[in-house]
Amino acid sequence: MWLNDLYQSLNPIAFTVGPFSVRWYGLAYLAGFVVAALVMRAVARRWRLDITDDDLTSVVIAVAFGVIVGARVFYVVFYGAGYYLEHPLEVFALNKGGMSFHGGLWGAIIGGALECRRLGLSIPTVADLAVTGAPWGLFFGRCANFVNGELWGKPTDLPWGVMFATGGDVYRHPSQLYEAILEGLVMFCVLWALSRRVPPRPQGTFLGTFLALYGVFRFLIEFVRLPDAQLGYLLGTDWLTMGQCLSLPLVALGIGLLVYAGRARRPQVGHLAQG
pTM for the whole thing? Predict the structure, then answer.
């Protein structure tokens, strides 16, 4: 199994400088934000928006803080299963893992919105720009999950099955790579294609598409991805996971935004008019 051979050759630590080790997971976060910023810049110029590079840099930094805080808070609340009530200081142990995409999404929206208000930028337009580049963050992050040998899937006899270090003596679905492809590459291609029209599609079109697609892809992939061990399956089922429960509202919200965008047809703008 060629993919298993690739996994066995990978090291979660990218390089070491003295006593410090730099992991691929941290580099994935950095690469995700940098590439997303470049995509936002390219789309903003295509749409001829009056948004400067300094504006975008400030927004991306605010979004980065929001992602980290939101992802950790959601993980602690929804995936902690009471562990952090007994070990409160562990909430701050980010080096031990434990981040939730759904929390990162809401953290990004809040952090980005606050910075947009400070700069006088249109929040819906910047949100549309941000989600056009965001799939690259998902792609790099899921690839890093694969390198770390975490968030693996159910047993499989398919030729691309992988025997993960913590997954027992059995080949498993590389569900991290399924997510990297669907939530990363496929979503980016769809959003990038939509962004190429000038004048651009109405405000909310891209955020709605992003939420709906992510929710659908994540819901489907959860059928081959094992749930977090501390939670297991929910409501006495052998299939419903916390990831699916958190993804369904995103699908509904995404569809709602698409309907609203089609009816309101608000144009994309950069800075809001003063006075």
Answer: 0.90
